[in-house]
């Protein structure tokens, strides 16, 4: 079955567990004498273990596409007193930095990023996978909204499309 849904069984760790009894969660269990452990192929070679925790630790993080143009779909836009307009979203590709000029599609609004924050901490940059809020200059919350996509105005800015084809 796992092959049918597109996975290579050699790259997946199979671990029999019992959350109720704690079998093979953090330590190897004596309740599964038939279970010898898991082995999977990774980019670094073979990885082996016996527990779910070891299997989780052996997961390789995905490559983050920082080399592609910035694409940041907006999850929401907030107006914060004393700060201004703060769009919030997850960086999908590229990098967002303070000082860069971004364009929002399809509203076609262009502005400068004043600061980038994650969990109330200022960041030098936001990279793919980061959920960030960024303060923008001279933009009202009425001009941009959830669903807009932010991109670097100097490097392949995003454009709205009337239609597109997708294979699902």
Automatic annotation (TrEMBL):
InterPro entries: EFTu-like_2 (IPR004161), P-loop_NTPase (IPR027417), TRAFAC_GTPase_members (IPR050100), Transl_B-barrel_sf (IPR009000). Residues 84-149 form the Translation elongation factor EFTu-like domain. CDD domains: EF1_alpha_II (cd03693). Its main location: cytoplasm. Residues 146-168 are annotated as: Disordered. Gene3D superfamilies: P-loop containing nucleotide triphosphate hydrolases, Translation factors. GO terms for cellular component: cytoplasm. Keywords: Cytoplasm, Elongation factor, GTP-binding, Nucleotide-binding, Protein biosynthesis. It is found in: Cytoplasm. One of its GO terms (molecular function) is translation elongation factor activity. This is Translation elongation factor 1 alpha.
